[in-house]
Amino acid sequence: MSERNDNLIKTTCKRLGLTYKQLGELIGLSEGRVKQIAILDNSEISEQVVKSLEMLIKIHKLEAEISEVREFKILLKRLIKTNPIF
Predict the structure, then answer these.
(1) Residue at 2 is within a domain
(2) pTM (2 decimals)?
C-alpha cells in the first residue's frame, strides 16, 4: 500500500490530497486520533484502520475510473452524433 518506512496515515493523506481532519471524517476517527496514529510504526496500526485506508484508496481509484468512463461516453456520443456510421 505504501513505501515501507512511511506511515500509512501520512502516505494515504499525501496520495489522496487529504488533511488529517478530512481523512478522519472519511474513516470515522477524530483528527486527534489520526494524528496519534500518524506517529506510530505501521506494525502498531490496528487492522481496522489499515483496512479502512485500503478501502478508501480503492474507492478513490474506482471513482477516478468511473469519471474516465463517463468522459469517454460523452466523447463517444459526440463522435457518433457528428459522424453517423449507419
Answers:
(1) no
(2) 0.77
Alpha carbons 6 and 33: distance in angstroms, whole number: 18
Q: What are the backbone angles phi and psi of residue 37, rounded to the nearest 5°? A: -65, -30
pLDDT at res. 47:
96
Nearest to 6 by CA among 30, 34, 31, 40: 40
- pLDDT at position 4, please? 55
CB 78 within 8 A of CB 72: no
Residue 3 lies in a domain: no
Find, among 80, 20, 14, the residue nearest to 49 by Cα.
20
DSSP letter for 84, please.
-
Contact of 11 with 3, CB cutoff 8 Å: yes
